[in-house]
């Protein structure tokens, strides 16, 4: 099955700085890579996603890049704000089985 | 998007008993999944709930411990059987794909926080 690894496990940045979270995946057949934000006590919510036919996608302060050859993808948050503080999960979805496999999570702390 | 109602939201149960968690979706969806999330940990896929047939379990999870039902395209249940304190966790229902296109994001229920004493 798919194996998704995520780094770092914790990340602390100053408000206004950028944050980068990286993930690798093992199954070259995976074709969809979402990022979820989970605030304490709440359900995961999609913040951005990318499909395997695209190398980069941006939505305001958030961007995701995908390198299919190296099988890694990254989340970039610019101009971080305290409300960005949460746990972020990357995930990979296979083409054949439609199952999502999640990374271990990154706890982001944005210091005001 | 799909709206998912999951219940109960939390429960405290005695060891050796069983708890059934329900997941109701406001529209027909192709795929339904059950995840477990230990405190401060990631989401671990338990099984895929298949409509009209037996669920497909991930490595480390078995039907006797986590029986799953999915009688139609909008509803599923997960039972945690013969519970022990190690089963204390958050259990999340997830769906993906409308009935027409399965290739969409995953939506999550609000989770069931289970404590076994």
Q: What does this 3D model show about the protein?
A:
The complex is a heterodimer of chains A (112) and B (117). Chain A is an all-beta fold. Chain A is 0% helix and 59% strand. In chain A, the strands form two sheets. In chain A, strands 2, 4, 5, 9, 10 and 11 form a six-stranded mixed β-sheet that branches. A five-stranded antiparallel β-sheet of chain A has the order 1-3-8-7-6, with no helix packed on it. In chain A, strand 6 and strand 7 (62-67) form a beta hairpin. Chain A is globular, with a radius of gyration of 13 Å. Chain B is mainly beta and 117 residues long. In chain B, the strands form two sheets. In chain B, strands 2, 4, 5, 6, 9, 10 and 11 form a seven-stranded mixed β-sheet that branches. A four-stranded antiparallel β-sheet of chain B has the order 1-3-8-7, with no helix packed on it. Chain B is globular and about 40 Å long.
**Alpha-carbon distance between the two ends of chain A:** 41 Å
* Share in helix of chain A: under 10%
Beta fraction of the residues of chain A? over 45%
Radius of gyration of chain B: 13 Å
- SSE topology string of chain B: EEEEEEEEEEE
Radius of gyration of chain A: 13 Å
The amount of helix of chain B comes to under 10%
Question: Biggest sheet of chain A: strands, sense, closure?
Answer: 6 strands, mixed
Q: Given the structure, what is the number of helices of chain A? A: 0
Class based on secondary structure composition and strand pairing of chain A: mainly beta
Counting H and I runs of at least 4 residues, what is the number of helices of chain B? 0
Q: What is the chains' assembly state?
A: heterodimer
